[in-house]
Design brief:
By secondary structure, the protein is an alpha/beta fold. It has helices at 38-48, 63-69, 73-81, 85-93, 109-116, 118-121, 144-155, 215-221, 232-241, 260-273, 278-291; strands at 7-12, 32-33, 36-37, 53-58, 98-103, 126-129, 133-136, 158-164, 174-182, 185-193, 204-212, 245-249, 253-256. The strands form three sheets. It has a nine-stranded mixed β-sheet with strand order 5-4-1-6-11-8-12-10-9, sandwiched between helices. The chain has a two-stranded antiparallel sheet with strand order 2-3. A hairpin with a 2-residue loop joins strand 2 (32-33) and strand 3 (36-37). The longest helix has 14 residues, at 260-273.
Length: 292
Amino acid sequence: MIERVTKAVIPAAGLGTRFLPITKAVPKPMLSVLDKPTIQYIAEELVSVGIKDIVIVVSPGSEVIGKHFGPAEELEERLLSDGKKKLYDIERQTQRFNVKFVVQKVANGLAGAILCAEKYVKKEPFALLLGDELMYTPKGKEPCMKRLMDVYLKTGKSVLATMEVFGDDISKYGNLGIGKDIEGAMEVTEIKEKPSVNEALSNYALVGRYVLTGEVMGMLKKLPTRRHEIELTDALDELAKKGKLLAAPFEDVRYDVGDKFGYIRANVEFALRSKEIGRQTKEYIKELAQKL
């Protein structure tokens, strides 16, 4: 019987050096898109697909992330006494997640971050969502994580999200060798980490959403350290060569909020969708475009 996915890991221990000096004092996962930190968008994505138990892997000195998801009694009392019930409800929404935190004391890569969550995940299947990537799906369409979970439940295999990239962008991502179609997904035959265009296996790139089987934790523990890091791609490539890895295309909007332009793009587009300031933002962009 295939176990259901009830737990998720969010690696969020990166130092955010591309965003210095703000990340000297503010952890990268707390950088906001519009009025909400990126880490909360990812937690909300999980709750929307029924995953309630979340492990966030943080770097030392990231206590503010725990504070964000914890109680704020003085603030709540002030909001209620001032009659600001709507703002009170917004603040309370940050406490609806069942979040545990674990500190990645040694900066040894993505696989090292995942291993920090082993005591919570154990040998169970788990969702993995990278903290630098936001996935936007319009209302009425199936979220990326929901599709991955459905494929996993049908096949019992690990499954990752993929998108097509072209030209020089190919060398920015893990690259997938693609085989036959299986249950609405594609068989992954091999993975190369950031190959040149000439070495690419296909145009399919690995993006930051996964559902991984319980065996993956054991595989990560056996991986060698390369350049001071343990590479998740090594374990995924091993799964692929055993016929145990699938890829499901993601066709909606992905934002790389670990990149400055991707971060700005996310803020602009989320602002355009906002009921509160969407119209103002649209008019401002029109006015600005005339001056460029």
